[in-house]
Design goal:
Helices cover 68% and strands 0% of the residues. It is mainly α. The protein has a domain at 67-227. Helix 1 (9-27) packs across helix 4 (55-80). The protein is elongated.
Length: 239
């Protein structure tokens, strides 16, 4: 029997998620068992089920945590440099994040690695993210940071088509490692900038003024992802 470690509930949950993330990258979702995750985390199987009732809920939390990390990084970038809120800068950063295998798998719909989780989404989170992007483009359009001849839904649709096209194309490109193709990142940035953004360079004072409102939008999505992680866990809680 695996010896239990004297960890807090939250610390134990993090250890389980770390173990699950490592194993899914090594073997893929279909092959990994709950027993293997529990053993790698140094907890008993029953203890794991105190945190997540099902294998699916556990690995959904792994992916949500990865998304949450990406949102945190986005917010931090905008706080350091408000120009990071521009669509082309965000798109390049999202592409560069695919150097992380889980992010790459999520963005390319890698069913070999993620199994059914690659196509299974929480519709409430999808709707929330779409609403966030609607508000994001409305904010940028209000301040002339994107092309105002297009409506907000048109801006959102163009952004989705350009970025998802680049992400999905990665599925068919041979890769020997997880290094980002910087030439492709530049092409993506140019495509988004030319399609969506205003021709004149943005005013730095304007970017600083808009940044807090953009961050507020992303923090809303962050809170929903954090709540979804908590909601996927079992009601039983022990210290």
């Amino acid at each position: 029997m695996v010896a239990e470690q004297p960890l807090t509930y939250e610390a134990r949950a993090r250890r389980i998620l770390d173990a699950a993330a490592e194993l899914v990258l090594r073997w893929g979702y279909r092959k990994v068992t709950v027993d293997e995750v529990a053993s790698a985390a140094g907890v008993g199987k029953g203890t794991l089920y105190l945190h997540w009732r099902t294998k699916e809920a556990l690995f959904t939390s792994v992916l949500l945590r990865e998304s949450l990390s990406g949102i945190d990084e986005l917010i931090a970038r905008i706080e350091r440099d408000p120009a990071e809120l521009l669509p082309h800068r965000m798109a390049v950063a999202a592409y560069q994040a695919m150097s992380r295998p889980l992010v790459r798998a999520m963005n390319t719909g890698d069913t070999e690695l993620l199994g059914k989780l690659a196509t299974q989404t929480d519709l409430s989170l999808v709707t929330l993210k779409e609403r966030m992007y609607h508000d994001y483009f409305a904010l940028l359009r209000e301040h002339g940071l994107v092309r105002t001849e297009f409506t907000v839904p048109e801006l959102f649709y163009m952004h989705y088509c350009v970025t998802s096209g680049f992400f999905l194309a990665e599925r068919y490109r041979p890769r020997d490692n997880d290094q980002v193709d910087h030439a492709t990142a530049r092409l993506l940035g140019a495509g988004v900038r030319n399609a969506l953004e205003a021709e004149r360079p943005p005013d730095e004072d304007l970017l600083r003024a808009v940044a807090p409102r953009a961050i507020e939008l992303f923090q809303g999505v962050r809170a929903s992802h954090a709540a979804a992680i908590s909601g996927s866990r079992s009601a039983t809680r022990t210290s």
